[in-house]
Amino acid sequence: MNKKAIILYSGGLDSTTCLAIARAERYAPYTMSFDYGQRHSVELTLAARYAPQLGAVEHQTVNIDLRRMGGSALTSDLEVPKNSNDKGIPVTYVPARNTIFLSFALAWAEVIGAFDIFIGVNALDYSGYPDCRPEFIAAFENLANLATRAGVEDRGRYCIHTPLIALTKAEIIARGLALGVDYALTHSCYDPTEDGLACGACDSCRLRLKGFREAGITDPAAYLEKD
User: In angstroms, how far is CA 18 from the centroid of its own chain?
Assistant: First the structure.
């Protein structure tokens, strides 16, 4: 492994699969998580605990207080929707979250001499967030090459890797299992109990459970209830 890459790693299903893919492609992964004022720290705890075991050369957690702005059920006291069938962009969307996360990843990449950034966005089995679309990723990649010293001095070209973007959740799970991912080490719930049980009813839980059902595999995560 001689090429460095930044992996946006939350401790969730998608980002853990993304980390496994980066390792399989022979990148030396530097993992980055964010404590941004979200409702809980279950994912962050798992990310910090397991990043070294999953091959991270270095792991860091960046503190950003997006709760000061709110605007999302994940960064305010708004209720997380359960068993919702509403269409459109849900209230769990965090304004500009992936733009902010990718900006921090880009800064770290420039410092350590990496030109590859992996993010586990998905545009099929997802909640409809605008910053998970291919158009957004392409625009940010263009920005990365315009806005950095390394890009301007032509030291290399930044690439935003989105290996999951066109996969169903079942296909993501199958890919991860083929790479040896233990999904018991991941957490996806927006609104877990105090002792870390996934609610089983928020959008993220429902998408995860749907993916495991379609893959024909039992989800090893601990749930309060499963729909």
Answer: 8
Rounded Cα gap, residues 219 and 184, in angstroms: 8
Average pLDDT, the chain: 93
List the domains of the chain with CATH numbers.
Answer: 3-182 (3.40.50.620)
Neighbours of 147 (CB within 10 A): 14
Distance from CA of residue 89 to its chain's centroid? 18
Q: What is the pLDDT of residue 43?
A: 87
What H or E segment, with its residue span, contains residue 151? helix 149-152
Q: Which of 118, 104, 108 is nearest to 18 (CA)?
A: 118
Q: Reduced to 3 states, what is the DSSP secondary structure of residue 183?
A: helix
Task: Give the global pTM.
Answer: 0.94
Residue 64: name the closest of 95, 110, 25 by CA: 95
For position 168, what pLDDT does the model report? 94
